[in-house]
Amino acid sequence: MADEGLRLGGFSSGLAVVLNGEDRREGSGKSRLVSYCEGFGDQSVERTLEHIFDLPYRTVNQLTRPINNTAVRSIIKSEFFKYHPELKTVVNRNIEGVSTICDNSELQVVGLEESSICGDIRIVKPPLLLESHALFSSARANACVWKGKWMYEVTLETCGIQQLGWATVVCPFTDHKGVGDADDSYAYDGKRISKWNKEAEPYGQSWIIGDVIGCCIDLDSDEILFYRNGISLGIAFGGIRKMVPGLGYYPAISLSQGERCELNFGHIPFRYPIKGFRPIQAPPTSKSLATNLFDCFLRLLRLQRLERAEIETVENLRRLKRFSSFEELFHPVSQGICEELFLSLTSVIGSAEYIGHGPFLSFMMDVYRIHPPHDYITLDRVIDSFLEFEESKHLFKHVFEALSSGCKTSSLVLTDCPYSGSYNHLALACHILSREELMTLWWKSSDFELLFEGFLSRKSPNKQDLQCLIPSVWWPGSFEDISSENSMVLTTTALSEAVNKVEEKQRDLCRLVMQFIPPVAPVQSPGSVFRTFLQNILLKNRGADRNMPPPGVSNNSVLVSLFNVILHFLSEGFAVGDIYGWIKGSWTNAVTDVGFLHRGGQQCFPASLFLKNDPHRVDISRLGGSYNHLLKSNPVNGDQEEVIRWEEGCMDDEETRVAHLSRQKPCCCSSYDINSTRNSKDPIRYLAKGSRGSCNSIAERSAHVSAECNASDLNDDIADKPSTSDHSESEYPFRPMQQLRILPRDSTFSSATLKEEELLDAMLLLYHLGLAPNFKQASSFMSRQSQSISLLEETDRQIRESIYGDQVKRLKEARSVCREEVMDCVRHCAWYRLSLFSRWKQRGMYAACMWIVQLLVVLSKVDSIFVYVPEYYLETVVDCFHVLRKSDPPFVPATIFIKQGLASFVTFVVTHFNDPRISSAELKDLLLQSISVLVQYKEFLAAFECNEAATQTMPKALLSAFDNRSWIPVTNIVLRLCKGSGFGFSKHGESSSSSVLFQKLLREACISDDELFSAFLNRLFNTLSWAMTEFSVSIREMQENYKVMDFQQRKCSVIFDLSCNLARVLEFCTREIPQAFLSGMDTNLQRLTELIVFILNHLIGAIDPEVFDLSLRRPGNSSEKVDRGMILAPLAGIILNLLDASRVDDAEQNDIVASFANMHCAGTILYGFQYLLEYNWVGSIKGEDYFDQSTELENLTKLEKFSHLLICKAELQAIEKRMRGGEPEIDDNLCCICYTNRSNAHFVPCAHVSCYSCISRHLLNCQRCFFCNTIVVEVVKQDANSA
Questions:
Q1: Sign of CA dihedral 99, 101, 103, 109
Q2: Tell me, what's the pLDDT at 1034?
Q3: CA neighbours within 13 Å on the CB side: how many for 172?
Q4: Which is nearest to 419 in space by CA: 495, 362, 472?
Q5: Which stretches are annotated as coiled coil (predicted)?
Q6: Average pLDDT over residues 151-170
Q7: pLDDT given at position 245
């Protein structure tokens, strides 16, 4: 832009400037000439130099020789210092009001006083990047203040418990007490949003990583204040005690374990200087001179921009000698300025750091221009000028530090979007580091990796930041003005563009590091530096996924940024020329613009990535256990270090195969977008509508969304490569590294090249460590948003219906709180959507899921390698799958989500949730829970029914997995597969989310494997008995204490739900396999009868109805939705199933009526059955498939007839008892366990006798004799004659 270069201030005599205004842009060609020249005899060079150095007119005498750097330095020394005498004045660094304890009194360096440190505070990076390695550590600075207004800054590297402030020397530091815990000790803690002076009081805002906290003390007004990113948090403490010289307030900090921060007492410029407050450490004396010299340099560069304008009047003025050309002056003037600058820096120790972070960085930013179009040409000339001096390397090192620090602390500002946040620092860093000399300088620095992490950092907003970024909030159903919706659309779109710009520059920087070849011997391959950095990051962040991460882990945003960079490279391609043939691992003629994850065809993966125990994998668990354990049990053979190869989609049939090179393409290679037109025009309206149900399944979205897409629609839009329609390309072409060395293609070091498979492996671990917590937090906010909106709507309803003024007032106050909560959740959800759920990220994650699932399925065929697969492979692919499944907006409709690319996921989960090779029970639970979630929705259940592995292996695997740990997910799966098949449902197993196919398969599995079904049934009886016992005990505790605790209420509610689900599964067994209870031994029937009587007894007689209802009432649910009918219905269904089966089977059967009658508690049983008959079933069981009146009457009639038979049987038993004359004599041959059957079996070897029924039942759970505890080898059944 020409007019940008013409905005020149402080015009001096002799300089003619054409001010090109709006008239020129409109094409009028009018210009206005401003000239202070007094005649045609003026010398152009002298007058131009006067302007550059801001000297009065005719200060510079006529030059007798061509201009050179010596002449320029002479002008600076003679004239420049003459008219700017303050630049040569040495400032006294001993500031009044500050006392410094320092070994070198001349330097007056402010740092930590080592003798004050309590705990374990370590310096991560000199001078003052600190980290606590003790539970609680405190320290003071070596300087105190007693009068005046002072400040220091703290940059937060973590955001946990830190107490920052001021303390006197008499304040004690201990393992439990620090800053703010004593008199004359004052601190701010943004984690707990409190201020501390012996006691805590609410104050300030919550802080986040990257915040810069200004700690200010005003001893003139006796006040202490704190600032967050330059914004005042208000006066924290007033009336603080006055001090005397030498006994003042020291800057002091306290850090809990693992907390990290960087202190700045003034050794570098403040990030957010506060007017009126001075740094404790004075700036170097060379600051003013350096600042003025850089201003002179800028005035020189503006002459070049003036010439670029190519204005005819300027050319005429040059011919008239009104001013000299830029090319004539640039080299001597720039050389002279640099020489004077470096002379001043070398004369003042420690000044290079201050100048590099402050004046020099500001100068570079001004040259480069903060916003595009960036001035690459001018910046390159400036860098060339500085690089001619060896001293400039020190400045550039500090510029790297300043740019890295700026990336960590820069916040998004709505008015600056899309070039906001860390964009400016990253853009400048990328251009500077495109020079191999400067890249080498950075790489050789001791802080290379630490600075690289800073460049990849990204500051996230807190609640107050989001209020500024998204001032207007709207959600479906809200009563906000329509302008709020439009405003939210605009702001979120702008923020999304800003995030994309930052991510784009992070990718550019990583490309530069990848293609950098370090100047070492032997020659390294491209990518070696990036690989080392990546491995060290992974090594450093071991344990980052723990609840209490160890000290030293990286900022989470670093892991997220690295993941995004690698995902983009693997999904969208590198797109930076042939140099990336090395990074891709081959020089084949493959299509380079198709990402690794989307190439399809022949796939391969090096098994060595699993079989090696690299340092960053030392503590990582494998599927088969720890690495050291596997080396002993499954030692690695030399021939196993091979490459695993397979054809994409080889597990599928040719007709149904979905692959990148097949006829039917996967979802990730489609430009298909659900309702893309509306989404692109009005994204927030669409996103917000889905947000309320985001915590629910895709199946619960509106039906038209699922119907909009079918296979034919998808295939019409298939592309051969991933769509980049939403990919923000660089505004300017990527500038590859200058003077890059290219290795010969036959280099012997190609084997050391960074492979894409390595990047994929690292990406999965980065997801596990960095992305998974973010998605978990996003899911939490989406769930909170849904709940808050429901609560707000309920409050609005109550306000409309209320007629009492006081009640309305209280409801309106509650509504205000609810509304604030909703707005906060909507803002956070919007932020997570635009930062985590970009379209290209969803596409890449889907492709990665496909790739890894197929790899796992292939590896599962090779036991020796499968057990070495890291656990995070499985955890990441499952978590990523469900993140995409629940993403809002959805990536694709649920109808094709699995079908069009992830059928292998179903194959893997159903064949490995009970895989003995997987040692971790948590991983098996994870797979079971995935199945449990998916089978409850019709779209996903269809994928299971079409999957051969699911139909062949899942039924038996579910039965065998029903053990002490996995019974909850197995119960949920079986229940969902059989939904609608029990009492109270009219469709008999044909519910919208049930599977007739799997019901049939489960029945066949039970019948075909009697031993498996017997073990399953035994565990089912035991688990249901335990659950009802726990429930009754919890209810009784509440009943005895006359109060309901929240924890007890939640516990009762959960256990009751589990009991109902178990009872439904038992009901399914009686319906599908009734012969297990009616035929053969009556053990199962007896246990079933005992269980029914036990439940009826506890539900009807032992529990107070009011306590029962209160214990199960859940927030947001009415009492009608949770009642006794939920457990009574399956009990009624069990009895009806057995009655129906006994009526059609003519073979000899166990007597159901006799089984109940023999329980010797006829009163309880009859009362229970009467309760079942009189219960209001229609009002209790509600749902999509509840029964109608005719079905109810028919079933109740059966129950009533059974009740009459039971009464008759009980009366008959009473008559027989009276006829025998009371209690019968005890028979010595009766079983001493049940006292009902004869003892007809004995244990071997101990020979203890009992009835065969009791022995068989006992051996189901214990293999020892119940008399002497001897291990039972055999049970011998005696025949009737011998008995």
A1: negative
A2: 81
A3: 5
A4: 495
A5: none
A6: 95
A7: 84
Angle between the N-to-C axes of helices 1105-1112 and 1010-1041, in degrees from 0 to 180, rounded to the nearest 10: 110
Strands 149-156 and 278-279: parallel
HEC-encoded secondary structure of 516-561:
CCCCCCCCCCCCHHHHHHHHHHHHHCCCCCCCCCCCCCCCHHHHHH
Average pLDDT along the chain: 80
Mean pLDDT of 63-74: 84
Q: How confident is the model at residue 611 (pLDDT cuts 50, 70, 90)?
A: confident
The token duo for 828 is: 């956070």
Segment 725-784, tens digit of pLDDT: 333 344 434 444 454 443 443 333 334 678 899 999 999 999 999 999 999 999 999 999
The per-residue DSSP string of 399-445 comes to HHHHHHHHHHHPPP-GGGTTS-TTHHHHHHHHHHHTBHHHHHHHHHS
CA angle 486, 492, 497 (to 5 degrees): 130
The band of 651, judged by pLDDT with boundaries at 50, 70 and 90, is confident
Q: Are 1170 and 1102 in contact (CB under 8 A)?
A: no
The rounded radius of gyration (Å) of the Cα atoms in the chain is 39
Listed in sequence order, the residues at least 6 apart from 22 whose beta carbon sits closer than 8 Å to its beta carbon are: none
C-beta separation of 906 from 951 below 8 A: no
**How far is CA 584 from its chain centroid?**
28
Orientation angle between helical segments 903-912 and 839-859, nearest 10 degrees: 50
Q: Report helix, strand or coil for 94.
A: coil
Amino acid, single-letter form, for residue 68: N
Residues 624 and 1068: their CA atoms lie apart, in Å, by 36
> What digits encode the pLDDT tens for the residues 692-719?
333 333 233 233 222 323 333 333 332 3
- Give the Cα separation of 488 and 291 in Å (integer): 42
Q: 256 has which bridge partners?
A: 136
pLDDT at residue 1210 in the model: 75
- DSSP codes joined into one string, 990-1057: --TT--HHHHHHHHHHHHH-HHHHHHHHHHHHHHHHHHHHHHHHHHHHHHHHT---HHHHHHHHHHHH
How far, in Å, CA of 44 to CA of 60, rounded? Answer: 11
Q: What is the pTM of this model?
A: 0.85
d(CA 874, CA 880): 10
DSSP string for residues in 847-862: HHHHHHHHHHHHHTT-
Helix locations, 717-804, DSSP H: 756-766, 772-801
| DSSP bridge partners of 252 | 140, 165
Which pLDDT does position 679 carry in this prediction?
A: 44
Amino acid at site 611:
L
pLDDT tens digits, one per residue of 1082-1137: 778 888 888 888 888 777 665 666 666 666 655 444 444 456 778 888 888 888 88
Query: pLDDT-based confidence at 691, cuts 50/70/90?
Result: very low
Check: CB of residue 251 under 8 Å from CB of residue 143. yes
Mapped onto helix, strand or coil, the DSSP state of residue 1252 is helix
Torsion of CA 812, 815, 819, 821, to 10 degrees: 130
Write down the pLDDT at residue 1. Answer: 39
Q: For residues 612 and 640, give the distance between their C-alpha atoms in angstroms, rounded to a whole number.
A: 11
Strand, coil or helix: what is 490? Answer: helix
Model confidence over 378-389: pLDDT tens digits? 999 999 999 999
Q: Which amino acid is at 633?
A: S
**Residue 470 above 90 pLDDT?**
yes
Cα separation of 874 and 861, whole Å?
A: 16
d(CA 486, CA 470): 12
Distance CA 439, CA 427 (A): 15
